[in-house]
Structure formats: C-alpha cells, structure tokens
Design goal:
Layout: E1 2-3, E2 5-12, H1 18-27, E3 35-41, E4 46-52, H2 55-58, H3 61-66, E5 71-77, E6 92-96, E7 99-109, H4 112-121, H5 131-143, H6 148-158, E8 161-169, E9 172-177, E10 186-190, E11 193-197, H7 200-205, E12 209-213, E13 218-222, E14 229-233, E15 242-243, H8 244-250, E16 256-257, E17 260-261, H9 262-277, E18 283-286, H10 292-304, E19 320-321, E20 325-327, H11 340-344, H12 346-350, E21 351-353, H13 355-358, E22 362-367, H14 374-385, E23 390-395, E24 408-409, H15 423-430, E25 434-437, H16 440-446, E26 454-455, H17 457-460, E27 462-463, E28 471-472, E29 485-487
Parallel strand pairs: 15-26, 18-19, 18-22, 22-23, 23-25, 27-28
Antiparallel strand pairs: 1-24, 2-5, 2-11, 3-4, 3-5, 6-7, 7-8, 8-9, 9-13, 10-11, 10-12, 13-14, 14-29, 16-17, 20-21
Helix pairs in contact: 4-5, 5-6, 9-10
The chain binds iron/sulfur cluster.
C-alpha cells in the first residue's frame, strides 16, 4: 500500500522559502517517492523545479538557489498508474491573465473525468491525465471572474472526492481540505512565518509549533508577510470521513493527525487487539517497522489482563515483547527480482528472525494489515523454519475487502486476499495457528472518533464519496453555507 502524495506550503518574512520547503518535503518523503517539486514566488515571478525521484536526488544546491521568494509550495508524489514521467509530477503550475497559480494535491477526485470534459469543452487544453490539472484549470477560470476566496469556494463546490491542497496564487499561499477531511492537513507556526503541511512531522522538522489541523471544508490563507493567516469555513458537513488508514499505516508515528499522536493511536489499536483477540503465547513480536507500535500496546495490555480479560496475577509475567525479526533497510523498492520464485523469496531478503527468540516458543506476530497475504504466508513459514512451535497472527485493522478510490495505491479487488475469503480461509492460506483482525468498532474507539466520521471504505466496501459502481455509506448532497471570513484568532 502506498500513500499517493504529501503537500506543503510556507509563507515567511524576509527569507527564501525554498530551503524550508525542501526540508519539509524530506519529512514527507514517506508519502511519495516518485517525484518531488517546489514552486516559489518572489513577488514578481514564479519559479519552479519539479523532478522525478526522491527529494534528495531531485534538487541540488543550484536548484534551491534558483527558487527565489519567501512564499512557495512543495509536493512529493507517488502515482498509481501510468504517467511515470514529469507530466503528472507536482506542484502543477498554470499562468493566466490575472497571475500565476501553483497546486499541490493529496487525494483523489471521483468526478475528475466529468469535469475535465466540461472544461475541455470550454477551450481548456490539458497536458496530463491527472486530476490536479483539472482543479488548477477550474480555479484559474474562476479567478478571472471572482476574488480568491469566492473562486476557491466555487471550485470546491464543483470537485468531488478527497483533496488536501496547498496552492500558490502569486505570492499568496493557501491550504484547502475537502469538506469531509479525508486526507490530513495542518497549520504550523514558525519563528518568521507559517506553514501548511500534510503532517505535523514536517512542522517539527522546521522547528515550528503545530497550531491545529486545517478543518474539513476550510480554506486557510497565509499572510504574505508571514505574520499570520485567515480562515474561511467554506463548506460544512454533518460527518467527516477521515481516512483511518492514515493512523494505522500511512502517516509517520511522530505526526499528530486530527488531534491524535499517530504513535499513541497505534498503541491504543494494539491494546484493543489484545482485548478483542489476545492469545497467550511465549513471545509477541512486531513485523518491522509497521507492527511495532501495535505490538507494544498489545504487550502492554497483555501485562495487565489475561486473554480471558481477568486481571493478570502478580507472579505471572504475561507475554514477552521481543524485537525478534530484523529488517534489512537496504532492500529498496527498486530491487530487481526477475523471476516469480525470487520475488516470492523476497521477504527473506527483507526480514530475518533472531532464531533464539523464536526457537521452541509459541509466537504471536503483529502487523497492521494484510493486503495480498503473500508476505504473511512467508513470515509464518519463516518463523516455523526457525523453530517456532506455534505462530499466531494478529492484525491491528479490519480485513481489507475493497480498493481505495481516495488516493491510496492499495490493490485491485482481485488482489485483496480478504475480498473473497473469510478470516478462517485466510488463516488456512497463510498457515497460521490462529488469525484475528481488529473490529471496525474498536478502530473507532481507539481513534476516539464516531464511526460515521471515519472513512472505512476499504474495510466495509461502503464509501463516504459517490464512487461509480460502489455503495455510498452516506448522503452525498453537498449543502453549502455562506462563507464568512474569520480571523485566525477568532
Ligand atoms: S478507502 Fe481505506 S485507505 Fe482509502 S481513504 Fe478510505 S479508509 Fe483510507
């Protein structure tokens, strides 16, 4: 599973934005590794550098020097299909009669094709098949007729789906989050300005302070001189649709998303996992690195209560937590494995158990999710080869039964092991002694959220957005409210 994008925007007083944007993109690298880009504006003209590859490879000193101006936006991208070239790399830029526009997008529109056809019919020429260009053209068109806030509101009224955006309109930087707040976006204060970013870890990297999340349906406009920001609540919905997988898998554990530290959320999910399906084994160990925080919460809960939910007797040591599996950090995604047999054995290149930790023991292996089931099968086999007497798997999320249409590169329905198999059938496939997933109710409890305020599309098959051919779990009408400008400190 891969997150598609990370976005950032900064407005500073008196120093260039390029370097802070570059550092922030480094902090967001986990959200996209295919391309990286920065657009800045120096008050007179826009400067842009967009390149394929990792942040560290996409920019050199000369590139950063050329990105003049104290305001700008940045983007890291992971495209889902096709377009493995710079035509879909971001930030996307357009110049038009009343200025220049740059756009960084995290998410996925569900009506991009329809909107592209309409705009093409009005004479707009598109250079990519990406949905970000659709937003950019629509906004540029609206800006010819209306002020910034009204133009953004009109575009938000037309685009459907998931979007967290940072936008540069000349040297004014904006942040926008879709009315259901599917993807994260937050605001931070720096010593000499403000930053908007996908995750608060980017704000930490700049020595800034997290101010708050951008609210679903909110437009944030940073002051050009870096002294503050204005907020406009342009749309309001009864329910949000935060992607629960941000907390489970995608976001950095050191980020705070929608008011919750991701690391603590994962530990809480692990605690719930013990409460719901704990099994008494000699050792509990995480699949590194994804299962680590879950396993730590699981083991902590196991130290307090038995698997039957009774208080653990004082002389009972409970379940031992062990880092029993080591990860080879140098096996990257570009590693070439020409044959299917070699691909299937790839897990042995990536992960290696510490034999003495598992030999002769009953083991619980904790991970955050099972997508295709291939890795889980290999891990169970690996632990048995190393002498484990029993191997139990516990998963810190519900089974993934359907694809994501909101900006996550997950898998097709055919590839998802849980799409047509029961939990028992999956257990048989991966050859574990037992297998249990976390319930959706436990996810909502662990995230301190109402179930109706989460997107659970990939684990329920019911989506909070109107996806063609899929079931919608809520009213998709888009009630508008009048936009009332508010000061940031209102
Ligand atoms: S479908 Fe799943 S991965 Fe996609 S936004 Fe919803 S919860 Fe997140």
């Amino acid at each position: 599973m891969t997150e598609k994008c990370g976005v950032v925007g900064v407005s500073l007083s008196g120093r260039d934005a390029a370097r802070p944007l570059y550092y922030a993109l480094y902090a967001l690298q986990h959200r996209g590794q295919e391309s990286a880009g920065i657009i800045t504006h120096d008050g007179f003209q826009q400067h842009s550098h967009v390149e394929m590859g990792l942040v560290g490879d996409a920019f050199d000193e000369g590139d950063l020097e050329s990105l003049a101006g104290s305001a700008g936006i940045g983007h890291v991208r992971y495209p889902t299909a096709g377009s493995l070239d710079t035509s879909c790399a971001q930030p996307f830029s357009v110049s038009f009669k009343s200025g220049s526009l740059g756009l960084s997008h995290n998410g996925n529109l569900v009506n991009a094709d329809e909107l592209r056809d309409k705009l093409a019919g009005k004479g707009h020429a598109f250079t990519s098949d990406g949905d970000t260009e659709v937003i950019a053209h629509d906004l540029a068109r609206n800006l010819l007729e209306e002020d910034l806030v009204r133009a953004v509101k009109r575009t938000m009224g037309r685009i459907h789906g998931s979007y967290s955006l940072t936008i540069s309109h000349d040297d004014t930087i904006l942040g926008v989050r879709d009315p259901q707040g599917n993807r994260p976006l937050c605001i931070g204060e720096l010593e000499d300005g403000y930053v908007i970013a996908s995750e608060s870890a980017a704000i930490d990297t700049l020595d800034g302070e997290l101010v708050r999340d951008v609210r679903p349906g909110e437009l944030v406009v940073l002051h050009d001189d870096g002294t503050g920001f204005d907020s406009y609540q342009l749309f309001e919905r009864e329910h949000t649709a935060h992607c629960f997988f941000e907390h489970v898998y995608f976001a950095r554990p050191d980020s705070v998303i929608d008011g919750q530290l991701v690391y603590e959320a994962r530990r809480e999910l692990g605690r719930k996992l013990w409460d719901e399906s704990g099994v008494e084994t000699d050792v509990v160990m995480p699949v590194p690195d994804s299962g680590r925080a879950f396993a730590s919460g699981y083991a902590e809960a196991a130290a307090e209560t038995t698997a039957d939910g009774e208080p653990r007797p004082e002389r009972d040591d409970g379940v031992e937590f062990a880092e029993g599996m080591m990860k080879n950090r140098y096996v990257g995604r570009t590693f070439i494995m020409p044959t299917q047999d070699e691909r299937e054995r790839a897990v042995r290149l990536k992960l290696n158990p510490i034999k003495s930790t598992v030999a002769g023991k009953t083991v619980t292996l904790i991970d955050d999710s099972i997508v295709r089931g291939t890795t889980s099968t290999q891990l169970v086999e690996l632990l048995r080869d190393c002498g484990a007497e029993e191997v139990h798997m516990r998963i810190g999320a519900p089974p993934i039964v359907a694809p994501c249409y909101m900006g996550i590169d997950m898998a097709t329905r055919d590839e998802l092991i849980a799409a047509d198999k029961s939990v028992e059938e999956i257990r048989e496939t991966i050859e574990a002694d037992s297998l249990a997933y976390l319930s959706t109710d436990a996810v909502a409890e662990a995230l301190a959220s109402d179930r109706d305020d989460l997107c659970l599309g990939c684990v329920t098959g019911e989506y909070p957005y109107d996806v063609e051919g899929e079931v919608t779990d809520r009213d998709v009408d888009r009630p508008e409210i009048d936009s009332q400008p508010m000061r940031a400190d209102d």
